[in-house]
Write a structure and sequence with these properties.
By secondary structure, this protein is α/β, with parallel strands linked by helices. The protein has a single domain (3-130, 176-378), classed as Rossmann fold (3-Layer(aba) Sandwich), CATH 3.40.50.300. It contains 16 helices and eleven strands. The protein has helices spanning 3-11, 33-38, 70-77, 95-100, 109-115, 123-126, 133-144, 150-163, 169-173, 182-194, 212-229, 240-250, 268-273, 278-286, 328-332, 375-378; strands at 16-28, 43-55, 59-63, 85-90, 93-94, 116-119, 200-204, 232-237, 253-258, 261-266, 348-349. It is globular and about 70 Å long. The structure holds adenosine-5'-triphosphate. Adenosine-5'-triphosphate (ATP) binds at residues 27, 30, 44, 46, 64, 66-72, 238, 310.
């Protein structure tokens, strides 16, 4: 681990910026016209009972298969998505009470929104094609700080363009988005977010669309900016290697999501070098550069490759229908990640197998599952 990683890792618990407690987000499943006439709307459980804190100068990388709820959780963390259940607080202020004007509001919603920014996978789509970079970057500053002089505003924009390597800044400021490469557009999106002096930036698949050679460069830039501006990052990726790189270098955490739940979380080296949740093992298997033995193993370590429907997730442990270790108890009792997982620097996994005294070890293995003895019995 780098010196930098050690420094940021030890300060994580000190100043909580965002706190999510038992947050769930449900959506009404989109239906076709005919379906909506005849069928009751179905509910998609996009995020289920997640508790997580983001502290100052923190990095949380969320990974998991498509549709597991990464974006929904990320948007809930930055106050863009309203939770169906649970609370989301910014420095102790309930975000949605602030939005609705309920109770004593200590931090106005506008200030919360400004402090929580987002950059998307496709920066081109997020930039107005008919506006020069300068106009795009001036707009949010004019809104949040109308008193700022044009001279100061531009000086700030040029300084940040310069900081992200867009030199000379005056040249880039007068370009239209189509006159920029994908990597440059992503830098503009980053500058736009940073101009607000945010506490947290959600980077949703922010490097996925870039050429491989640009990905590491862009992640290194995010790391430098995170340190320089004391900004926390929630980094979403379906690519475990990218997520590991960013979380590892920043001394942050990696959170593995499956069907709306965080199933394992902790320092990336612990989570990925010695996964405790069987689903983390599957993701590791699927990432060849993380698991050299995967090359020799022809089949993935799952009993079924079918991902269950989030409208009707499996009972008990949601992974039990695919888990190669599942036993009867997993079909009825959901393992918990534990309260300490929200802030802990140590790794936590939601699997009965992490408890050597759990009734799991006496429970009947499901069809196709080989019985293993409990770690206690093996001692
Ligand atoms: N606005 C919405 N209306 C209805 N369903 C939604 C909505 N947004 C997300 N969902 C559903 O919620 C679940 C989680 O979606 P989400 O986009 O958060 O997952 P994800 O892990 O970010 O996926 P991806 O990697 O494909 O972006 C999916 O089943 C998705 O179809």
């Amino acid at each position: 681990m780098s010196d930098r990683a050690t420094t940021t890792g030890t300060t994580r618990d000190d100043d909580v910026v965002m706190s999510l407690e038992n947050v769930s987000v449900d959506f009404e499943k989109e239906q076709g016209v005919l379906e909506s006439l005849f069928d009751e709307p179905e509910t998609v459980q996009a995020v289920s009972d997640v508790s997580i804190d983001i502290s100052e100068n923190d990095v949380l990388a969320l990974v998991g298969e498509s549709g597991c709820g990464k974006t929904t959780l990320g948007k809930t963390i930055i106050g863009v998505q309203r939770p169906t259940e649970g609370t989301v607080s910014y420095r102790g202020q309930d975000v949605w009470d602030a939005k609705d004007g309920r109770g004593d509001v200590t931090v106005p919603f506008d200030d919360i929104r400004r402090s929580l920014q987002m950059i998307h996978q496709d920066p081109g789509a997020a930039l107005n094609p008919n506006r020069k970079v300068l106009t795009t970057l001036e707009a949010p500053l004019k809104k949040w700080d109308p008193e700022m002089s044009t001279e100061d505003r531009r000086a700030r924009i040029f300084a940040l363009l310069d900081r992200v390597g867009m030199e000379p800044p005056e040249d880039y400021a007068h370009r239209f988005p189509h006159q920029l490469s994908g990597g440059e557009q992503q830098r503009i999106a980053l500058v736009r977010a940073l101009l607000m002096n945010p506490d947290v930036i959600l980077a949703d698949e922010a490097v996925s669309a870039l050429d491989v050679s640009l990905r590491v460069e862009t992640m290194n830039l995010l790391l430098e900016l995170q340190e320089q501006f004391n900004t926390s990052f929630v980094f979403i990726s379906h690519n475990l290697s990218n997520a590991r790189y960013l979380a590892q270098e920043a001394g942050g955490r990696i959170g593995i999501m499956y069907l709306g739940e965080i199933v394992e979380i902790g320092p990336p080296d612990e989570v990925l070098n010695d996964p405790q949740h069987p689903y983390t093992k599957v993701l590791r298997w699927a990432t060849a550069d993380l698991d050299p033995t995967a090359q020799e193993m022809t089949d993935p370590p799952v009993r079924s490759i079918d991902i269950p429907d989030p409208v009707n997730p499996p009972s008990g442990c949601r992974f039990h229908t695919r888990c190669p270790e599942a036993r009867e108890v997993c079909t009825t009792t959901a393992p918990e990640l534990g309260e300490e997982a929200a802030t802990a620097s140590e790794r936590c996994a939601a699997c009965h197998r992490t408890d050597p005294d759990h009734e799991y070890w006496e429970s009947e293995p499901l069809d196709g599952v080989e019985a293993a003895e409990s770690p206690t019995l093996n001692d």
